Amino acid sequence: MSEEAVVRRQATCQWCQGPVPEQDRGRPRKYCSHSCRQRAYEQRSRVSGTSIPEDAVIMRPEKAERLTDLLFELRCAAEDIATAAEENSPAEEIRELCTELVILARRAEHLR
Predict the structure, then answer these.
(1) CA 110, CA 21: separation in Å to the nearest integer?
(2) Among 25, 55, 84, 95, which has the highest number of CB atoms less than 10 A from its own CB?
(3) With contact defined as beta carbons under 8 Å apart, do 12 and 18 qualify?
(4) Together in a domain, 87 and 75
(5) Domain total for the chain?
């Protein structure tokens, strides 16, 4: 192998979308932990023998409601930024609104 640096994209866990630790040998890992691998197995087992696709996302009604609420909050935050920009609001105010939007988006990432 040459001395050139090989640039690799950080692999993401197929269950939680978190970073997967790199390894030197063997097949690339699909999951970041044994726990995520187990959750994925349980999900596949639940839908086995049904018409539900293996990659379907199944969630409890209360979690679906939380997701719907969070998406509404995200849309409102994005609209607030758009309004602030149209009204030529101070940069500091727009930065604060952007920070709030990022916080909401991060909450959405961890809904699983």
Answers:
(1) 19
(2) 84
(3) yes
(4) yes
(5) 2
Enter the DSSP assignment of 109: H
pTM more than 0.85? no
- Tell me the pLDDT of the chain (112 aa) as tens digits: 444 444 456 788 888 878 998 888 888 889 999 999 998 888 888 888 888 887 777 778 988 898 899 999 999 999 999 999 999 999 999 999 999 999 999 888 776 6
Does 85 lie in the same domain as 44? no
Domain that holds residue 16: 7-58
Token pair recorded at residue 16: 């939680």
d(CA 18, CA 33): 10
Q: Reduced to 3 states, what is the DSSP secondary structure of residue 54?
A: coil
